[in-house]
Each structure stands twice: as C-alpha cells, then as structure tokens.
UniProtKB/TrEMBL annotation:
Protein name, entry field: FtsK/SpoIIIE family protein
Chain intervals with Basic residues compositional bias: 272-281
Pfam families: FtsK_alpha, FtsK_gamma, FtsK_SpoIIIE
Role according to the record: Essential cell division protein that coordinates cell division and chromosome segregation. The N-terminus is involved in assembly of the cell-division machinery. The C-terminus functions as a DNA motor that moves dsDNA in an ATP-dependent manner towards the dif recombination site, which is located within the replication terminus region. Required for activation of the Xer recombinase, allowing activation of chromosome unlinking by recombination.
Length: 950
C-alpha cells in the first residue's frame, strides 16, 4: 500500500509539473509502440484527520449509549455512579436528556466534515435553553446550594451546577419570581436562535400559511356556488390591480426623469427546498414540516403563485441554498405543482427526502387557478380582452401557445462526482479549501468553495488549470467571491444540459408580478431561478456574441415576449434586419410602425426619424409640464391634458417605441458617422420619452461597438465570444470567453459591475408563427410614411457628370479654407492638373470662386457660413446662396456703390446675376484669357519648365 501511495504521489507531481509529458513521442511501450493501456484510477487513502473525526464521533455515541442505559434503565456496572454524576452534575434532573444530546452530537460529527457557523448557532441556542430550564428548576426547587457535607448531591436533584450558577445569584438579587420571568425570556430568545428566524419572520410565515389555507378553501369551494367563486376572484383581482396602479402612480409621480431605476433585473426566488443543495454547515434549521412531502398532489388543486423578490442589485443571489449533506445519495424533490415546493410550503429551508437520482422537479411556473376552465374559456388572458381606442377588441395571445420545457433536475450523480474531483484537487495540492455545496442551473452548476483560516484566495484561483483537467472541461469560470457570500464559486458546465423555454419564463412568478408591457423573458440563472428584465428600466441594451452563441434566439424571445404581453397601442416597434432573413417572420404584425427595414441606408434614416420623434415627444412633455412619458400618458387618459387654444390636434397617449437593430456592424460600415450620432442622441435622451434601443451584433470589435456607443448603453448581454478582447469590448471585463454557447450569457445591468450568468430562453419557430398569426388576425399594421424617406432621383448637371463627389469635396475645401488654388486641389484631392483645373472651372461657373488671375489664388466668393447652402445648391437641392437677399440689397443700394463686393473683372457676371431671376439656371462658364500674368509669376504648370509651350 505504501509503495502504491508513493507511486501515485510521484505520478501526480509529474503531471502537475509537465501536463504534456504523456503526449511526447518518447513515451513508448516495451516494443517501441505507444502504450494504449487505459490508466486505472488510483483512489487516495483517507487522511488521518478524517479517521480521527470518525473515531471521536463513535466515542461520543458510545458514551451516549452507556449514559442512556444508566439514566433511563438503571443498567450499569462499577462506573454507574461516575456516569450519573457526569450526567446529572452539570444539569441536575435534566441529566435524563444528556444521552440524547450526546447522540445528536455524534451523528452531526459523522454527517459533516467540519462544524460551521450553523452548528455553532445551534449549540449556543441549546446552551441557552438548558440554562433557562435548569435555572427555573433550581429556583423552584428551593434554590439549594453546595454543601461541604453533601457535595453536589442537592444540586443533582435540582438544576445542577449550571442551574445553580445562573439561578442562585438571580434569585438572591431580584427574587425568585423575577428570576423565573428572566429565564422564560432567555428560553424564548434561545429558541429563536435555534430556529434562525426573528419574530417578524415568523409572523410573515404564519400569515403566508394562513393565506395559503384561505386560497385552498377558495379552491375547494367551501360550499359556495360557482357564481360566488367567480365574484370573489374578480374582486380579489380588482383589488390587486388597483393596488398595483396606486403603487405605480406613486412611483412615477415621484420620478424626476433622471433618477436611476433600482434594478432592471427580476428573478423568481423559488421556494426553499425546490432545487438547491448545500452542506448542513450553513443550513437554517427550521421546524419540521408536518406535511408529507411525498404525498401526491391533486392535479385540480389551486396553484399558488410562486413567491418572488426583486433583486436590489445585480450582485443578488445571496440567499442560502437548501442544505443537505453532499455525501448522501443524490436526492431531488418529487414533481410538484408549479409554484409549490416539494413540502407544500413557500419559504424556509426543509430537508429533502431521498428519491431516485433522476427525479426532477417540475418548475413550470404557476398560472391562475383553473377558474377559466370552469367558465369554458381557454385562458385567463381572454377574460380580460383589451378594448382599443377605435372600439376594436384586442386579446393577448394565450399562454398555451408557448410550450413548456422539461423539468429541472436539482441534483445528479454527475454533480456529486465533480464535488469529489474538486475536493481531490484541493487535497492533492495541499489547499485548505472545502467544497461546501452547489447550486445547479440549466447549463452550468456553481460549486461553492470555502477557504480555511489564513488561506489566500490565489491558492484556489491558481488551480484553475488543474481543476479544468480534473473535471475534463476547459469552460470553467471562477468567481472570487460569489456576490454576497464569503465563498469562491466554481462554475462548471453540466454534462446533461436542460433547455429553458420562453413559455415557462413568461408563466413564472417573476414575469406575472410585473404588468409592464416591456417586460421580456431572459431565461434562468445559475441557481435555477427564472429571470426577466424590464426594458423600460434597462433602458437601452447591447447584445453581442459570436456566431451561433444565441444572440438571435434572444432577439426572437424578446420580440415574442412583447407580442405576448403588450398591445399595439402600448408598444410599437422598429425592426432593422440588414441580413434580410432573421426578422422576416414578424413582417405584418400590428406592433410595427414601419415595414421591416433591410437597407442599411434606410436604417440610418429610420434612426434619424427616431431622433425627430424623440424631440417631438419632449416638446409635448415640456409644453404640458411632465417629466416622463408615463406621467403624460396617465394624464391624457384621465382627461387632464387638453390641446392648446386654437389647435385642432387630438392628443392621445404615446406608445412605447422599441427599436431593434439585429446587426449593428452593417450599419456602421455604411454610414458610421450618421449612425453613431443618432445612437448617441437616442441613448442619451430617449429614456424619459419612452423610446428604447436594443443593438445586436456578432462582431464585438471596437470599430463597431465604439466607445461613444458603449458609454451611453448601460445594459450589456454578452454571449460566448472568441477571445478576452471581445469580452472586454462588451462587458469591459473578461468572462464571456469562458461561456459554453447555446444561450449561455452574462447580463450586466445598469449601475452594476458584477454580471449575472443566465441561460437564455428558447422559443421555437413554430411557436413564433403561431403567436404572429394570432396578432395578425386581429389587426392590420398601420405604417407611418415618414420613417424612411423614399429615394428621389436628383437631376444632376450633365456638365458635372460623374465628378459630383469630387466637386463637393473641392467646394468644401475651398470655402472652408477661403483659398482658391488649383495646386491645392491637386494635393488635397490627389488628382491631376487637368482634373483640378476642370473642378475649378465648374466652381467658377457656379460663382464659388472668381476668375483666374494668373499665378495668384482665385478669390472665394462664398463665405464659410454659406457652406451647407452652397453644397445643397450644387447638388440641385436648393437655391443659390444669398439668392433671396441679393435682389433686395441691390435695389436699396445707391447707384455709385455695388450691391455686393465683386472683383472688377467679374462685373459681367455680377450684372447678369443681378438682372436674372433667383430661380434661373446657374450662369454658363465663360472663357478667360490670362493677359495679366507677369513673366516672373510662378504656378504649378510653369514650375515644370513647359509653361512656354503651353
């Protein structure tokens, strides 16, 4: 055995120092061939510390047995008296419970690897209870004391040494009655310490159980008829809706438009006991559940809405998972109704009964009670069809159109095997760290590692390669620490991955809790909780990842979520699809404000229209005195907003406007300046106007996702990337390069620095088509004509021909510099002398420059302030610069003073221009002779030595 141990240590050290040694050509078998014999796993022998702990546990159990025989049955030998004094001496007549306490301590030592804070809490609470009970016994027994003649015998019949130590002084100081009252308070406080709850938490739990019982009574009927039940359900729903509206009104009335939202992410905190695993060292020991966890549930029972809680920050997920020993067989709660835990409770850690390793928990989120089925309706959404302003009725798609996904397995044998491998790595490399538990998600499982006292975190992070080698995966991710916990997280992909369906996410408690139309389903986090986000709080999002990572799936889930939850009067969309195939399935839905845009040039025009729409909305907000579009819409519905006097406008609420760009890279390649400027204005100002932007790209490079765009888009959703550089472009930190793909993503919300890992939801194309057909059957799309301007063919001078771009550049260069030189055009535009001279002649014919004066630069006749007007005139889009004011000035000018400052050599052009109509065609170029050129003048042509021949 010793020889085998040494061989294992030597092999381990060799593999740690040279991981590639096994692949070298020199490693051959006896006959020169590569050895193909499989390596047999060698199990390391248990350490001495584990044997010592087990040995002490058995010693404690043996002591409990012999003490119980003496105290309960009077069976003992010579040592019976000693055992009695050991049991009754400390606690007196409570010595009868000492065997039970010793047995519990021994079992705890066998079940866990080390005693943590939870066991310390239970020990302190138990000691407090013993002190209170023994103190009461001591005081009520006459408060005896130690005697030299009798020793501790009087105390053994009372409260023992502990009762005498706490009871005697209190009885002397405050009287026996006061001492008893104090001991009762001590017992109550110690019981709270043991339970791990406060009085307020206990009250909430009792109220919740009472509410659950009331709901069960309502579901069972309670002797009431169907009409009474319907009326009660309507009243309860109306009360909840009124309360939500009142809360939302108070929130928005106090919202100043620039105040950041608390959190854009919403997670469904599942009932404790439904899917988390952790060691008993960090468990909360609650009262035993009286309900039978294995009892079957009636399929017609009313489903409780799953308890939800808003994350105060994206660093959330600080709640302790369910606590069960990792060393036992894999267990999982039985399949239960959505919204219930396996024990029928909604909160609190509960022990999970053993089950088959492959047992799963059905976590399809809860829906309303089956009241709709009794009324002959297919879905609760049809009970509350929405009436549109034009009198038509619009019903949201039924939740049944979206399929449910498979159940969620909370523990498998593969997870337990990885726990042993991780612990083996720490043991072999002598790192004082312990795997205390894990939380299993649909794609990855997060294993929690607690360090020993004085151990540096780098000791664990430095073992990343060894951990990857041990578990056989290069896609591991280390969290140092887990947000909200003093633990290191090791995220490892599951060998049996699960699919997250969009229907389950939208039916979850996290989605049902929010009535906002811009709530979309993201998926599930690492802890298995459903995650949704509100685009109104985001308020703009960047979605990026390499090809096949799940970006398009998220876009489909987002648009489908909007169609499932919002009417066309609430949300309108602008979809930009330069790839022409990703979003064509949504063509014709009534939520669109324009047909799907596939041309990058038209997409830039659409973004400019969004800017104009944003300005128009802000004009209304400023005119009527509101800071946010929600406040304005609420006032319009209440009739508090009236048109200005003399206006014929009919004021109606503004819908939310969602702009989705499926591929930002194509737009940035076509018109980078215009697109970047439009995105900058939208992302800076559009939140309060109800306009939200979602940018998606599969090229997360700095030339596409510029710093200006990133600085104004606070929310990022990063799917798997090819390198750390791409991850830093999206998230400003590493992490996306370690994702597994297939919807695995990191979500970084506004105002947070720690991304949350989520598994994106999936919706089949058949489900999308079903939802699209449902909404298209009810309404036709109403497109606006001013979103994209149709192309107008402009009449270009035949004289200009194909030189329009060069002519515009030459005009901009000359007007900006106020220097009309042909040689400058040659240098700046990189054209020949003939082309530069022709451009100068064209500018002269359009009165941009004056005539040639030999080697001198030509006079520039247009001021820099008239640059844009001149360029538009050259392109045929406007009038000549100064054409409206020139005739008036000429009429008012005296006879001896010219209307405009023109060179003397240009008098003929000035005269013809003054006498012509402002809408007349531009003057025709005339030929000029450079008679004024002196012999000593130089220009670009004369410097070549061929000026005389010209």
């Amino acid at each position: 055995m010793l020889l085998g141990r040494r061989r294992f240590d030597s092999v381990s050290s060799t593999m740690a120092t040279s991981p590639t040694s096994s692949a070298r050509p020199g490693n051959r078998g006896p006959r020169g061939r590569a050895s193909r014999q499989p390596t047999q796993p060698i199990e390391p022998s248990p350490s001495g510390s584990r044997y010592r702990r087990t040995g002490w546990a058995f010693v404690v159990l043996a002591l409990a047995v012999v003490t119980g025989l003496r105290e309960w049955f009077g069976v003992s030998g010579v040592a019976g008296g000693v055992l009695h004094h050991l049991a009754a001496g400390p606690v007196g007549v409570l010595g009868i419970v000492v065997p039970l306490l010793l047995g519990a301590l021994g079992i705890a030592m066998l079940r866990v690897r080390r005693l943590g804070t939870v066991h310390a809490r239970i020990s302190v609470g138990t000691l407090g209870v013993l002190a209170g009970v023994t103190g009461i016994i001591q005081v009520t027994s006459g408060n005896p004391s130690l005697s030299l003649s009798l020793g501790i015998a009087p105390l053994e019949d009372a409260g023992g040494m502990l009762g005498w130590a706490v009871g005697y002084p209190l009885a002397v100081l405050f009287s026996s009655v006061a001492a008893v009252i104090l001991f009762v308070l001590l017992i109550a406080f110690s019981a709270l310490v043991i339970s791990g709850r406060t009085i307020a938490e206990l009250r909430e739990q009792l109220a919740e159980r009472r509410g659950t019982a009331d709901q069960q009574d309502d579901a069972s009927g309670g002797g009431e008829n169907l009409a009474t039940r319907v009326l009660g359900a309507v009243r309860r729903a109306g009360g909840r809706r009124a309360q939500e509206d009142e809360t939302e009104t108070r929130t928005l009335d106090s919202y100043d438009g620039d105040e950041p939202f608390r959190s854009a992410l919403e997670t469904e905190k599942r009932p404790r006991g439904s899917g988390r695993r952790k060691r008993t060292r960090s468990s909360s020991t609650g009262a035993a559940d009286s309900a039978d966890p294995m009892a079957p549930h009636d399929p017609d029972d009313v489903r409780d809405e799953t308890a939800t809680s808003v994350l105060s920050g994206l660093s959330g997920a600080a709640d302790s998972p369910v606590d069960v020993p990792l060393g036992d067989e894999p267990v999982s709660p039985p399949a239960v109704r959505p919204g219930r835990s396996a024990t029928g409770k909604s909160k609190g850690a509960r022990p999970v009964p053993p089950a088959e390793p492959n047992a799963v928990t059905e976590e399809t989120p809860s829906v309303e009670p089956d009241l709709a089925d009794e009324l002959g309706m297919t879905d609760m959404a049809e009970m509350a069809s929405m009436a549109l302003p034009d009198g038509t009725t619009y019903s949201l798609p039924s939740e049944s159109l979206l399929e449910s996904g498979p159940g969620h397995a909370t523990r498998t044998e593969a997870n337990d095997a990885i726990v042993e491998k991780l612990q083996g790595v720490f043991t072999e490399f002598k790192v004082d760290a312990t795997v205390t538990g894990y939380t299993r998600g649909p794609q990855v499982t997060r294993y929690e590692v607690h360090l020993g006292r004085g151990v540096n975190v780098s000791r664990v992070t430095g073992q990343e390669k060894n951990i990857a080698y041990a578990v056989g995966s290069d896609e591991i991710r280390l969290l140092t620490p887990i947000p909200g916990k003093s633990a290191i997280g090791v995220e490892i992909p599951n060998s049996d991955r699960e699919m997250v369906k969009l229907g389950d996410v939208l039916r979850s408690g996290a989605a049902k809790k929010q009535a906002h139309p811009l709530v979309v389903g993201l998926g599930k986090d690492v802890e298995g909780d459903y995650v949704v986000t509100n685009l109104a709080k985001t308020p703009h999002m960047l979605v990026a990842g390499q090809t096949g990572s799940g970006k398009s799936s998220f876009v489909n889930s987002m648009i489908t979520s909007i169609m499932m939850r919002a009417t066309p009067e609430e949300v309108r969309m602008v979809l930009v699809d330069p790839k022409r195939v990703e979003l064509t399935i949504y063509e014709g839905i009534p939520h669109l404000i324009t047909p799907i845009i596939t041309s990058p040039k038209k997409a830039a025009e659409a973004l400019e229209w969004v800017v104009r729409e944003m300005d128009a909305r802000y004009d209304d907000l400023a005119s009527f005195g509101y800071k946010h579009i929600d406040d304005f819409n609420r006032a319009v519905r209440a009739g508090k907003v009236e048109p200005l006097p003399g206006s014929q406008r009919v004021i109606s609420p503004y819908p939310y406007l969602l702009v989705v760009v499926d591929e930002l890279a194509d737009l940035m390649m076509t018109a980078p300046k215009d697109v970047e400027a439009a995105i900058q204005r939208i992302t800076q100002l559009a939140r309060a106007a109800g306009i939200h932007l979602v940018l998606a790209t599969q090229r997360p490079v700095a030339s596409v996702v510029t710093g200006l765009i990133k600085s104004n888009v606070p929310s990022r959703l990063a799917f798997a990337t090819a390198s750390q550089l791409d991850s830093r472009v999206i998230l400003d930190q590493n992490g996306a390069e370690t994702l597994t793909g297939q919807g695995d993503a990191l979500y970084l919300g506004p105002g947070t620095s720690a991304p949350v890992r989520v598994q994106g939801s999936w919706v089949d194309e058949s489900e999308i088509r079903t939802v699209v057909e449902h909404v298209k059957r009810q309404l036709e799309p109403e497109y606006r004509d001013d979103v994209t301007v149709p192309e107008v063919k402009k009449q270009i001078d035949e004289e200009i021909g194909d030189d329009m771009d060069l002519l515009l550049q030459a005009a901009e260069l000359i007007i900006s510099s106020q220097f009309g030189s042909t040689s400058m055009l040659q240098r700046k535009l990189r054209v020949g002398f003939a082309k530069a001279g022709r451009l100068m002649d064209l500018l002269e014919s359009r009165e941009v420059v004056g005539p040639s004066e030999g080697s001198k630069a030509r006079d520039v006749l247009v001021q820099p302030e008239q640059l844009q007007e001149t360029l538009a005139w050259i392109k045929g889009e406007g009038d000549a610069p100064g054409s409206e004011s020139a005739p008036a000035e000429a009429a008012d000018a005296p006879d001896h003073q010219p209307a405009t400052a023109m060179p003397a050599s240009d008098s003929r052009i000035a005269e013809s221009a003054a006498g012509s109509d402002i809408n007349s065609d531009p003057p025709v170029a005339q030929s000029w002779d450079d008679d004024s050129a002196s012999d000593d003048s130089e220009d670009a042509w004369s410097l070549t030595g061929r000026g005389s021949s010209w």
